[in-house]
Every structure is written in structure tokens, then in C-alpha cells.
Amino acid sequence: MLTNPSDFKPRPFPVTGGPARVAVCISGSGTTLANILARVDDGRLPGVEVVAVVADRESARGLEIAKARGIPATVVSRKSQTMSLEIFSAIRAARADLVVLGGFLSLLFVPDDYENRVLNIHPSLIPAFCGRGYYGRAVHQAAVDAGVKFSGCTVHYADRSYDTGPIILQKVVPVLDNDTAESLAARVFQAECEAMPEAISLVTRARVSRIGRRTILND
User: Fold this and answer.
1) What pTM value is reported for the model?
2) Listed residue (90, 120, 87, 118) closest to 102, CA to CA
3) Among this protein's residues, is 140 annotated catalytic?
4) What is residue 100's three-state secondary structure?
5) Would you report the helix, strand and coil content of the chain in percent, each value rounded to 5?
6) Helix axis angle, 181-204 relative to 31-41, nearest 10°?
7) What is the pLDDT at residue 160?
8) Which of 16, 105, 121, 160 is most deeply buried (CB count within 10 A of its CB)?
9) How distant is the alpha carbon of residue 72 from its chain centre?
10) Active-site option among 21, 122, 140, 171
């Protein structure tokens, strides 16, 4: 940990001098966190280390994953008026190069030094079924009710509002005639397990460039 977290500046991408240091923000069970850790462990996500977990509620079950792995964890109440400041103070203290929002339900104000360094995953093909109020089961029920033939997930850069940052990648899954919100959610989750690690790898290896609101994948 840094004595003065405000002195920390994230390393440029591609990261050199050791693995990319990733902080994961959670609100619930930590399935995204667990998936990232599993892929780091088995070598499918090389050059990455999870160095911090931040939760916006003490009841987040994903904190147990952090505890079991010996990963420093911080809880910042979503009711705190300085929530974003406190969260990024913890992230800087952990010297994180990249932040992943893994089922993080609070709106986070991304500071300038972490612009293009905070990734969010949303369980639909943005701009469909996204924005304030669209999370969890509600997203998949909306897709089923709308009668769409495809859904999926989107990894995008987080900015300062809900689900509006530039899109990095999307994974598509079919919506079947007999789908429920639960069965569609299970299929989309499998796509999420592929999408977020892929996006982390692309960003930390400097394979993503921004042109306005568009992202371009570099060779």
C-alpha cells in the first residue's frame, strides 16, 4: 500500500515491469471476480493479478472469495456521499492499473486518472435494455418480453453515467422461444465469462484505441 495514495499514477498500457494490477468492484456474489481468478490461475488470462476487491455493501458474498484468496478487500457504503472518492482512494492505494466492475450496482464517478481504465460488463447488447434500473433479472425479462431473437453481453468503458461508455466488445447469444428470464440469464452469463477476461487482455495489452465514442482493435 502507498503511504499517500494520491501520489500514485497508473502505469501506461501495455503494462511492463510485472503483471497488470487489477481491482475488482463488487456488490454481490462475486461471480465475475471468481471467473477472473480462475482464468488467471489456469493461465488463460496471463499477465494479470487481482490486487484488491472493493464492495459497496458488507453483505456482498464476493468478499468471502477475496478473504479466502488473501486479497485485500475494502467496503465503502453505497450510501456514503463520498463513495467514489473513497473507492478510488482504495484503488490507488492498491496501485491498480485497471478496474473491473463485476456486478457492481452503484454509479461510480470515474476520475480523470482512471479514464479508459474502468471496465463494466452489462448483460445485454447495449444500447438495448440498459441504463438506470436495468440490472439483474430485469434485463433478461425485458429482452424476453420484447421478443428479441438475440441478446448477449457488452463490455464497455465506464464513464460517469449508467451503461453509456464506449463499447469494447460484445458477445451474442440466441433468445429461444421457450426462454424465461432465468434460462436466458444463464446463457448470457456464460458469454460474460468469456467477454470480460477477453476485454481485460485487450486493454492491458494496449490493443484497444478510442476514436471519439468508437473503439478500434489494434493488431
Assistant:
1) 0.94
2) 120
3) no
4) strand
5) 30, 25, 45
6) 50
7) 86
8) 121
9) 18
10) 122
